[in-house]
Structures are given as structure tokens and as C-alpha cells.
Specification:
Its EC number is 6.3.5.-. With 498 residues, this protein is α+β, with helices and mostly antiparallel strands. The protein is 39% helix and 18% strand. The strands form 3 sheets. The chain has a 9-stranded mixed beta sheet. A 3-stranded antiparallel beta sheet has the order 4-3-14, with no helix packed on it.
Amino acid sequence: MSEKLMDYDEAVRRYDPVIGLEVHVELGTATKMFDAAPNVFGAQPNTMVTPTSVGLPGSLPVVNGKGVEYAIRIGLALGCQIAETCRFARKNYFYPDLCKDFQTSQSDEPIAYDGALPVELEDGTVFTVPIERAHMEEDAGKNVHVGGTDGRIEGADHSLVDYNRAGVPLVEIVTRPIEGAGARAPEVAATYVRTLRDIFRALGVSEARMERGNVRADVNVSLREGPDAPMGTRTETKNVNTFRGIDAVVRYEISRQAAILADGGTVQQETRHGQADGTTRAGRIKSDADDYRYFPEPDLVPLAPSREWVEQIRASLPEMPAAKRRRLKAEWNLADDEMRDVVNAGALELIEATVLAGATGQAARKWWMGELSRAAKEREVALEDLPITPVQVAELQALVDSGRLTDKLARQVLEGVLAGEGDPEAVVEGRGLEVVSDEGALLAAVDEALAANPDVAEKIRGGKVKAAGAIVGAVMKATKGQADARRVRELVMERVGV
């Protein structure tokens, strides 16, 4: 049953939204967080497990040192303080995919805390998101619902459990309440998670592929009468793993909660589930604090990362995405809106790799944001999934720069590369697309076109130089578009004595 909604613009005029996000990132370690089971995506169900993964009696956990390092890297990148000591805890709850009936996590002693992350919105506005904590934990298994639609529990005949994911290292990043975003709350939420995704990739701690669930967000939304009013009752929409979905969930919850409040109702504190159409549906009721009965993990000693180690990690951090974008924007001589388009299209790394392969920033941007973006849209794939590499794009541009290809011919070569005909050089040879550079052949084609159009030649001699376009067009047709139009025009003018 559809729920009553208030127009979004009216909702943000009448109420002040407050949001919060809990973002989980799966770490790209070779093994799991507390045992030696491989950390592999897509394996046959229940094959990537050890007794520790599933909590069999007598099995004992051992902390993954690389997982701790990755957590510290994330904390430092988010401007957090790194704890001198911290410890793991058991978070107790029952769910079929949690075979131990508890999750090894961190409670009141996280590895990182008190950070902040500036995020740049589409128009260039910078909004700073306060970070409360980033803590380590293990992932649960995965319930597979059979018989329903799109793997959802609705309409399913039965469910299966795959424990391959149980024990995969996670870092959970929890914001403080994000205030002051107003009508831009959906954009702030989505941009924040996108910024985190980019940081995870830059740090090398995760593939951060959202379609695989490597990054997913629990989205909290509440409304209040105004900035000085007490906080409203929040809802928490679980496991949203697309930027568009995060934006839609915040927008929907603002409109839904506003309609309830405007009618004198009370917003129910609950978990909710995001739907494919951008709506949410009710899950379970939540109290002010879930009774997870945290207690210290008795099988793991406290962690005490040395200050020397932390500083070594800090010194090894790569350039952060925001700083990198500013540097590349200047190096490539791009305008603000051009750079935003590049980032929004997911083309930054592709263009950077093309530049490193020898193309200029402007040339690389032209190909990836032009012909290749259109090709990706037609094929309904991401830019990075097109069957062409940055090196091949740079080779194509080199052929244009050398005069062996015109832009028109280069587009035909690009089609050949995308069709699997080989590298640009192979496509040029295979299709016979190289520019006609033989002056003798070009002069012969020009003379033939002038002889066939004597009236046009006279117009040119009479000062109507625009008429030369007809002769240039005839030569280009005769050479199947493989002549340099600029050189052809020069030869035409020489031949008619202008």
C-alpha cells in the first residue's frame, strides 16, 4: 500500500532534515578478519569457510594485521584520531546469516574517532560531514531468497544461507548527525558516500564495487521544526548500495515523514528497506538503543598500534581524491563544470591513464566524454567496461596528432577498436583508413575536381573564396574522406591562383 507523501519542496520549507550515515566497506585483504579463509567474491556457496568463520566449538580467532592497517589508513584519511588502545567486542543478536549468534565488532573503543570529511557538491559548494567513529568488525553471511522476484524475500518459497562472506573484514564509518544540509540533504548524503568510495579506492583498501556490496550505507533520516528545535524521531534504511538509491531514500523519507508530522502523527522509530523504485518500506521497530549486550571479546587481546607505526602509515598515504582533482584540473586546463562532468561520468581515472600514455588532458577528455561516453550509453555499460584501454585511446590520438588520421577517420578507427578489430594501428591497416598524404595524388584529385566544376573555379578567382568548399568536398569524396581537408583547401587556392 502506498504511503502518503508531502511535496518535497514543501517538506523542506516546513521542516529541517537531519541525516546520518553508517557506511560499511569490505576490506580487500587476502584472508578474512579473524581466520585464514580466503576473502574471495563469487565462489561456490559455503566453500570459503573455516571452523572459525562459522564459529564451530574450539575454534579461535586471530586478528588480520593487514585489516588493522587498512582501518588505520581509512581513519587517517578521514582526519580521525587513532586510538592508542582499543579492543574488540561481541555484538549479540540472532539472524540466520550470523551463525555464531554474535558479530565480532568494536563497541565503545573504536580504532578511529573524531574526524571530518569535506565533500564537494555538484555546484562546487563544500559541505563538511562530521565523523564520529570508524571501527573494525566482521561481515555476516548472506541470505539467498529463492522463488521471489529479484532475490527479494517477498514471495520467496524458502531461503538459503551462504557463509562465504562471514568473517570478511569490514570498517564501519559512522557520522555524527549531519545538520544544515536543508533541501540538499539527499545530495549531501549521496556525495558523501561517493567521496568515501573514491577514498577507499585511492587508499587501495577495497575494490569498493557497490554492485557487489563492497560499500553499502545505512541511511538515517529525521525531521524537526527548525534548526534550534529538538531532534526528531529517526528511521534507518538498511544496506543501500547505489548513489541514486541513497539520494532517493533521503528524499522519500523526508516527504513521508513530513506528511505524517503535518497530519499530527508520530514518526515510528524503525528500520526500513529501500525499494527499487526509490521508496522505502517498514522493517522492524527499533528502541532508542538496541540491546546488543556488547561485552569484550574474551578470545582477542586489546590492540595497541604504536605511534611509530601510525605515523609510518600516515606518511605512506597517497594523494587524496579531492586534492588530486584540483591538481589535474589545473594540469589539464579544465573549467570547473568540465571537471565536474568528468568526475560525475566516472572518467577521471580513465582520462588520467590516457594522459599518462601520452595524450593531452583536453584530447583525452574529448574522447572519453564524447564518442566513448556515447558508446557506453548505447551499450548500457560503464565507461570502464568498454572494450578499449586508455593506452589505445592515446595511440588513436597520436595518429591524429601525426596527421595520419583526421578526426572523422579517427572515429571510424575507434569503431573498429570497439568492435574487436585490434589496436588503432591494426584497424587503420585493416580498413585502409590512413590519410592520403601523397601530394601528387592530392593535386590530381584537386585538378580533376576543378576541371569538373569550372564555374566554381571562376567564383573563387572572383573573390568568392567560400565557394572553395564545394571543391574541397569533391576531393574528400573522391578520396573517401582520407584527405586532410585543410591541405586540400590550400592546394585548391594555389591551383586557382588565389
